[in-house]
Amino acid sequence: MKTVYKSVAFAVAALLLTAGSFYYQSKVAIAAYAPEWDPTGQFVIFYQWEQGDDGKVTRMYKINADGSNKQQFGPQGPGYPSLPTLSSDGKTAIFSDLRNVYRLNMADQTTQKLTDADGVRHFGPQFSPDGSQIVYDEMNNEGFIHLMNADGSGKTALGVNGARPAFSPDGQTIVYHAKVDGVQQVMLMKTDGTPLKRLTDGKGDSYDPSYSPDGRFVLFFREVEKDVNEAFEVEVASGQERQLTFMGKQVWGIDYSPNGQTLVFAAEDWFGSNLYLMPRSGGAPSKLL
Q1: Which of 62, 125, 204, 287 is most open to solvent, judged by the fewest CB atoms within 10 Å of its CB?
Q2: CATH number of 6-287
Q3: Helices (H) and strands (E) in the chain, counts
Q4: Of 98, 47, 52, which is closest to residue 73 (Cα–Cα)?
Q5: Which residue(s) pair with 123 in the sheet?
Q6: Distances (CA, A) of 178 to 147, 162, 168, 190
Q7: Which residues 6+ apart lie within 8 Å of 204 measured at CB?
Q8: What's the CA gap between 118 and 200, in Å, rounded?
Q9: Is the pTM of this model over 0.90?
């Protein structure tokens, strides 16, 4: 993974349910979040807050990398489908409605409910590289990371308190964020929940990690000052960090392109949340939406 309150960053989708978030979202022209590349690098998927017949709803969209051909996909009625991500072959999406995790056939748009939350929230799902498993977090007062088969069977709690987990490209490790000594840090564990190491050094809350396509780096965003998040990457082997964005806004929902050369991210201020593209090597961001 993927508003102006710090809790949104910790549970990207969940905190958008607050009354303050609904008020805020009603004031912006564009409210796009959690962009991710498709496996071919030809388009980006994301979710967007909109005004529906029964109040605020979310919709999932895809848009070409040149900003053309924005199309809605997934559920059409009231609800909060959010945080979509695609399988490695692009044929299947998984997403959360801020309560449960669902599977979506991209060809015929049929959905399958994979979890049955009871008093908790299941969200932030991510496929394993081979598409056979899904890792997700269960939020109540704390976050707990779970693993299940792609058809929803075999649910297993990994015994790890954290959120926004994501597999490494080789499927051997999972990166996530968790609170350590009062600060959100990016952590690394084996797929059975065995802890490996902490990847960030405590310079502000760090959230929503994901691997680079070659597995050498982990991308995340960090709160650098009040109401300002910026994107960083850290080298897994050395722990060396590099700041990637200098937007002076709330940046989150950042993702590497399949070739690792281009970043897509959402950046939010009091006037809206837009999507941007930027070379990983640096340079000026260009607005995608």
Answers
A1: 287
A2: 2.120.10.30
A3: 2, 24
A4: 47
A5: 137
A6: 17, 4, 17, 15
A7: 183, 222, 223, 224
A8: 33
A9: no
